[in-house]
Amino acid sequence: MDCSAIVLNKLLLERNLDIWAKLKLAFLDNAYSSVYSAISRYYDKYSNIPSFEELEITIREGAGQKTLATLKLIDEPDISAEVALDALIDQYTQNTTISLLEKFVDKLPIFDSAEIKENLAHIVLNLDEKTLTTEGVYTMSDIMLFKSPDEVAKDRVFLGLNNQFDSVLGGCALQELILIGGPRGAGKSITSSNVLVNQYECGNTSVIFSIEMIGHEVFERNMAISADVSYMAIKNNNLSEPDMLKLIKARAAQFLDADDLVSDYMRHRDRFKFETTLVREKSLKPDNQMIIIDDRSLTLASIDLHLGKLKARFGDKLKVAVIDYLNQIKIEGSNLFDWQPQIMVSKGLKELARKHNMLIMSPYQIDATGEARFAKGILDAADVALVMKPYEKEKGAMGFETTKIRGGPPLNFISPINWDTLRISPQSMEEPEAKEKIKRAGKKEKEKVDDTKADIPWDA
Questions:
Q1: What are the sequence ranges of the domains in the chain?
Q2: Assessment of whether the complete model's pTM goes beyond 0.85
């Protein structure tokens, strides 16, 4: 059965706009490309689907006229246009899958386990992109305007970076893409860890994809924020005894029924024994976790693969994914410093947020003017875009300004940050005073500048 011919025949007989909206040239056999192009030109000019007679007038080339005549003579099968289109899309998907799998099998001997899974995920993502059609059409009776507080709360996520921001927006919606821009050393990764910890403390599961930092370093930061202890003391292994106990309690709280091990620790004071026993004998909370994925070669396909697996495991408890950071996500065959692929990454993240029904947040790097580096148009797909306003570390402040926001007013807010524990407080604060300028004889007036480049004050 020639599915391409049947679909085009029914399209021209029924002049069905729903079918035209879902039909793509790639689905059809190459022999019918001239007819598809003629229909497309007619629709662009007259905003309607032509009949056979109307199309015959517009097609002047001999090959196209012969193809159209053949389509007109087809015996109309006893199936609907929708069923014929579904069969055509299935046929196209099968043929495309075979082609992609043949290329995959050719390279299979040189792939390791991780590469096999990622390339299979890339095939699925590729098929989704090629066969995606309109997701849904709703009439006024299909959508309920009024939602109960429970329904609203189920679909909203509070980032916990600032109470004013969360209150004005009523939380960010699932399926949204949040982009946070910041210059080098402004604290983008620290902001990411704070969002992750805030979700954990709300009883949810969240995941962070780390590209530049190793997983252990991300976990140390998360634990410093969660336990409210010095990050540098954890890193340098010189916590005071009271802070060590706070860290032990925070670590035990990630597991079920682990209070007895805290009591045991208070007797033997051996942190290595405590943690070894904890991970061997106790179980993590089943739906309240912080997942860290350390992948220096992160791609959209691998993000899709991981989110699919995690969503199947944690369900609605998985609300937020953080990608640290957007500019480093790889597109096969592209240059990281080319802005066009990064627009594709931004659009891809938005599509994954919708596909997996979760909020995706990603920092991105900006230049001295506040624009995204090597990424014109990177904010097009974002629902909310924030730019970080850095202050001197001693001010203990982190500022944010919305540069794009859908469904809300422009917002500026400043949150306190403890650079020792890395915790960002959600309470708003006044803008810190600017540094005084220092006058020097015979010199041009200069502003005293802190040239620290790191996310944290290493000399603290």
A1: 3-131, 150-433
A2: no
